[in-house]
Every structure is written in C-alpha cells, then in structure tokens.
Amino acid sequence: MPDLEFIRQSSGLGYALLFGPGIVLLLIALAVKGAVRTTHNYVISGRLLGFGFGVASLISVWTWSMAVMLSSAQAYTWGTSGLIWFIVPNGLAIIIMVPFALKLRQKMPSGYTLAEFIRARFQNSVSSVATLVFLIGALLGVIMINLAGLVLVMNKIFGLTPISIVVTGIVVVTVYSYFGGLTTSAVTGTLNTLLLGVGSSVVVLYALAKAGGADLVFNEVQARGDQHLNPFNPVTAASFGLALALGLLTNVIADQSFWQRVWAIRPKDLGRSFLWAGVWFYPIPMALGLLGFIGVAYGVTPEQLGPLGAGAIGPHVIASLGLPVFIIALYTLVVVNACFAAIDGALSGVTSLVAVDIVHRYWPKVSERTLLTITKGSMIVAAAIAGGVVLTGIDYVNLVTTVYFYGTSLLIPVALSIFWSRMTGTGYVAGVLAGVAVGGPLRETLGPTYGPLFGIIGLIAASAIVSIVVSLRSNTRFDFDSLADGTGALLERDAAPSDPDPDPDPDPTPDERVPAGQQ
C-alpha cells in the first residue's frame, strides 16, 4: 500500500470544533438550570435519573480520550490482542459495579458519596478523609488525562498550541457544566454518547473504504507479521493487559463520578443501567481500534507519529487518508466530546464531594445559598488546578498513573466495607496503608523491568490480607440497616415545616448509627 501523506488542517477549523460543541452544550445547560434550584438537585439530580439518561451518562463519563484514542494505539502496537485486552476489561469494569451499586443503594438509599458511606460505616475520620483525598485526586486525574487527549488530537491534526487547547478546553467545559451540575452532565452526556456511537462508526466506515476495504487492510496487516492478528499473545497480557484490567476495576471503584450516579439513578433502573452501559460501551473503542490496523497496513512508523507516540495513530491516519473535511471534523468532534463529557463528569463528582464531605460536614449551619455557591465554585477551582498542573509542563501522565496506582489500595477495603459486616475502621485504614507500603516499593523496584503488574498484585494482596486479619481481631458486626436512617444530608439540613414528612430529629449520633462495639 502507498505511504500516507499527512495533511495539516486549518487551525480556524480546530478552534471552531473546540468552541462549537461548548456553545451547544451551554445552551442545553441554560435550558435545564431552572430545574436545579438546590444543592441537593445540583449534585444528585433529585435521584430521578432514568434508564436512558443513566446508561448514556455512565458511558459518557467512562469513554475518556483513552477509550477513543488508546484503542487505536493498542491495536497499532499489539494488534488484536492489544485491542481485546484494552476493550474487554473496560466494559467489565462498569458491569462489575452492579452488585456494589445495588447493595449500597439498598442499604444507604439517601447517600451521595463514597466518602460519606465510609464515614457512616466506620465513624472514623481518618478513613473518610483518606477516602476523600483519593477520590478528589482521581477526579483531578480524569480531568488531566482528558486535557492530554484534547492536546493530542488538536495539536496533531490542526497544529494548535498546547496552552491554547488547555485553556480553551477548561473554559468551555467549566462554563457549561457550572449551571446545571449533574443534570447538565446527564443531558449533555446523552448527546455525547449518541455522537460517540454513531460518529465513530461513520468515521471508521469512511476510513476503511478509503483504505481499500476491510479485506485489503487485514491482508496487509497479516503480511506484516502473524503477531498482529494473534488474539492470545501472552506478551500482551504480561506487558499491560493484566495490570490494565486490575487498574480499570479500581478506577471505577475509586471514581466518585460513578458513585454519584449510583445514588442519582432511580432504584428500579440502577442495576440494568450499569449492565447496559458496560455492554453498549464496547462498540465505540472496537470501531475506533480499527484505525490502528489501518496504520499497521500502511506501515506507519513511530518516527512519523512524532513525540506523541502510538497515541497519535488515530489522528495521524484520519488526517493522512485524504478523507473529506467533514469526516475529519466528525472524528475530531468524537474525541473532543469524549474529553468534554469525561471532564464534565469529573467536575460534577467534585461538587458532590465538596458539598457533602467538606462544606456540610464541617460547616453544617451554612445557608443553602452559600452552600450552592461554594459547590458551584468548586468546579472552577478543580478545573483551574488540573489545568495549571498540565500547563506547568511536568510529567502529569506519570502523576496521574501514580495517583491511580496508590488509589488501588482502596479496592479491597471498599469492597469488604460494602459486603462484609465484620470489616472495621481500623482494618480499613490498615489495609490501605499496607497496600501503599508494599505496592509502592514493588512498583519502584520491579516497575522499570516488569511494568506495574507485580506492584499492583503486591498492593492488592497486602491490602486484602491486612484488612481481613485486623478486622477479624475485633469480634464485631456492623448493622447495615442502620445506614438507612435519615433522608439525605443535603435534604435534612433544609427540611422545612411545610415538607410532607419533615424529620425533626437531629442527625443520629455515632452511638445510634453504629451498633455497640463497632465504634
């Protein structure tokens, strides 16, 4: 096949594709903001998200720039095995959340955040604050990773400068997200999901046709080595597959964007929303992964991709095949909207943590107007911090992977906290610390040679063993039914006499909420 000739697109078109979606999404946000008059509705959408909005919003917050571009990168680098190891764990990570979501929503129907659950579960400030720090760090990581995705595609195809991309992206997303909170995120996420599914399919079909058809592409890939079409290449699993699978599960467990939706989706729609979100996620990275095979068929070299590496293979192929401008624009919109939706979801997650676990917890008497103002303002602060880190030029990709690695220490303690009545607050904290203490040194010593796999395995094993052993030493059992007390932190604080059934009692004390011996 002939060599691809990269064609740089107009920078004006690039800016239009950054601002255009933002204007449309802002109009949507302004249209729905009238329904968001309280902090409760702002962060939890009245707990009324249905099946359609639930599925679409879950897909939109999970379909990061990683899903739309790294699927192509893994197919280009590892072939079929890379695509399988990237796609399958991604969808399963959402599906595996079903039992977690159902159990927690059943036992704590009026919750808002994972940190709030940990605080109510153990009455231990150390465990809840540690969880809060990890959750906020993970959300900032989501924002930074998706800013990196914006920089990659807009710089590669349109030649825009990183600083202009980051500043524009942050401003656009923060402005439209500010007005409606989770409701805006759900509505705009639904539109983004439609664009992701339909847009990616149209783009890939055009690209395959321009490359001579699927048969020709895969014949060329086969001619360049059997390893590209071997779905069971063990090297792929050892190099990144197993570590990625464990990391993805942890990312969902430690992502407040998902827990926020656990309490926002109507109970009857909760389980099937997570199930179908995982299933319907698959076609998006599967389709875009085919761009990596087109790159292999054309013999694209790492030198042609430049310093951006394999992650640039999708944009490189799209800008080099001689496709119509509207297809290039459509591909760009798919990536841009994936990044916007993920950043939007992360900012919404930050607002729930700030409102419930910081402001309401430490300043419970603050007025509703002040609480809502601070909650909205936290979006601006989080966006500014993430954007500032990216603009400093530090290796924020390494920073994010480090945060996620240590966030894995939450996986087993959180799971045990939800499903095991004998889990204690001391066991939770000890398990997290043990995971960090064992996994960190393994990552530093073995990581350069063997990758992150042994570090993650050591972290999870230490976390599990210590959590269980420490908890078993305390012969106590937690009554999960005690979590059902109350109507929700942000509703209880604003209960008025005109409410149909106001709760005149103050928040339960630790002694009332937790059985004797569990404190």
Automatic annotation (TrEMBL):
Keyword entries, A-Z: Cell membrane, Ion transport, Membrane, Sodium, Sodium transport, Symport, Transmembrane, Transmembrane helix, Transport
UniProt entry tagged with the keyword Transmembrane helix: yes
Membrane topology: Multi-pass membrane protein
Catalysis: reaction(s): L-proline(in) + Na(+)(in) = L-proline(out) + Na(+)(out)
Gene3D superfamilies: Sodium/glucose cotransporter
A Pfam family this chain is assigned to: SSF
Any one GO molecular-function label of the UniProt entry: symporter activity
Basic and acidic residues composition-biased segments: 510-519
Residues annotated as transmembrane: 12-36, 48-70, 82-102, 129-151, 157-179, 191-209, 235-254, 274-298, 379-397, 403-420, 449-472
Region listing for Disordered, in residue ranges: 491-519
GO cellular component, one term: plasma membrane
Subcellular location: Cell membrane
GO biological process: sodium ion transport
Family recorded in the similarity comment: Belongs to the sodium:solute symporter (SSF) (TC 2.A.21) family.
Protein's UniProt name: Na+/proline symporter
Organism of this sequence: Mycolicibacterium chitae (Mycobacterium chitae)
